[in-house]
Amino acid sequence: MVIEMNINASSKPNTHHWLAVFFMASCVAIAFWLTPHATWFEHIGKPQFENVVPKQFGDWVEVSDVLGSAIVDPEQQDALNSLYTQIVGRTYLHKPSGRQVMLSVAYGDNQTFSKQLHRPESCYSSQGFKIESLQEEVLNTSSFPINVRRMTASRSSTLEQVTYFIRIGDKVISGPPSALNYARMGMGLKGYIADGLLFRVSEVADDAKLSNQLNDQFINDLLKAIGPAQQAILIGPKV
Fold it and tell me: Cα–Cα distance between 39 and 18 in angstroms, integer?
């Protein structure tokens, strides 16, 4: 009789076991539902930035890169190629003043943790530049205000005045490096794998104020020269 009772007891369903199975299955289903499967890159039409940014517009025209670029150099090209799917580096002449502005557009179509774009201050520092100043400002554009960062970097006797912004998914972000993660997660909740764009312009000059004005003029002239769809690719859609 005792043997039969033990057999019958052991044959009863284990409620805790089935609850655990149900919980794990639910977690898998929720994780799959929350994981984005569409890319923002495809949503905005798979942009090719060589074509998005014109080589000539307004008072600006591309010239040979006699100044060189502080970020895109042969020593770091392999590392950059592993992070970004597209890189555009150009130098533009401002015809009325004869001054030159360097442009760098670094784009990654998939902003996973291992491929998140790098902020210029870290790239400049790794190449021997000293970051003299770094602050955030709001740039008024013809579309809407965007957050930019101003940076003065020095190496030997050279000063470079940098203005840059970062777009993650559908908006330009600001704040500390953690802001990239929050923006990426926000795009995930919308069902998209975020892309990332680093847009940098700079001038080799001593006067930060005058250079910032020229950098701002370049950005505004560029945005005015392209259509709404191309503007959205650079700075996100107008909300």
Answer: 37
